[in-house]
Design a protein that fits this description.
Layout (H helix, E strand, L loop, with lengths): L1 H20 L4 H35 L6 E3 L1 E3 L1 E17 L2 E5 L4 E6 L6 E2 L4 E5 L2 H29 L5 H27 L1 E3 L4 E6 L6 E2 L4 E6 L3 E9 L11 E6 L4 E6 L2 E7 L4 E9 L10 E18 L4 E2 L5 E9 L2 E8 L1 E6 L2 E6 L6 E3 L11 E4 L2
Parallel strand pairs: 1-24
Antiparallel strand pairs: 2-23, 3-12, 3-17, 4-11, 5-7, 5-10, 6-9, 7-8, 9-11, 12-16, 13-14, 13-17, 15-16, 17-22, 18-19, 19-20, 20-24, 21-22
Length: 380
Amino acid sequence: MMKYIALFASLALLTACGSDQNSSNNVEVEKLKSKKDSLLAVSQGIAGEIEEVNALIAKHDSTKKLTKVTGAEAQLGTFANYFEVYGNVDSKENVLVPAETNGEIVSIQVREGDRVNKGAVLMRLDNEVIQQNVEELETQLKLAEDVYQRQKRLWENNVGSEMQYLEAETNVNTLRNRLAGLKKQLDMAVVKAPVTGTVDKIFPKEGEFAAAGMQLVRLINLDEMYIEADIADRYSRVVTDGKRVKVVFPELDITIDTVITRVSKFINPANRTFEALVRIDNQERLIKPNALALLKIESMYVDSAVTVPVRTLQESSTGETFVYVLKKENGYYQVVRKSVVAGPSYAGRILITDGLQGGEILVDKGSRRVRDGQLVEIDQ
């Protein structure tokens, strides 16, 4: 330290001499300037040493504790932004099976919860009267066909009248048509599954009378489900066929990553929305029709992005957006204020488009209590 004092004294003396001889000795002035620059460099070194000593004092001084903060990393990776809408679940094949004819329900072939294939018998209605009519018509048709064949042979041999031949032919055709109609009614008395699915509900009981059109069974195909959602028209540029979407069922703790299957080209003028459809895989059959689903539709995706927790971001009174970065030197942490440019945020993290490279440690908890250049302690 004594050498620094001597140097400063020499500087003062030389500066005075230089003032007296300035007009006559330019060479001496240049020497003095060089000496001054050397002394300034020495003074800067002293200032650096003083700063280090102060830091050590702050670190080891038990009477003055450093502010404790936590750190959060500026992460480098993918960033996706989503907006959320709710949709309603439905089945592609949700069918109410009606009675096609009148009749008493004589047997129910399935139980609720059974899985059936298309064409499987669900119920049988009383068809005794129809069966008797079929048998009678079959007998009449057999006789009519025999008469028709005889009249045909006679007509081909120019025996008998054409009228008798045509009447016999007409009678056969009429009976055949009536028999086909009765057999169709007979077939309608057997209620079959129009689709493959699960028997969700059986409405009547055995012995009850079923009128034509009455709902008998509800069948649901739980394998092929879809979600319909109404989306605000401001997202019409974002939401397209094939857009990635996360489907969340909070009550079931299920999340499905899929894509939008179809987007309607029509905007409802009443509420300014358009319809989007999302097909979902439901092989485990846990998702039921009319369940409420949360759709998280991707509106932005960046392959390589820097993101930070939203809470680490601050804004000054002049509108500057900044964060505090922790810089480690000589065993302690110093707070460095860093201006940044922020983008959209999602799930508590915000995109930083300029100002950070990724990997920096930011002041997280305690960021409102520190200032630029302050020494702090990281709370583990």
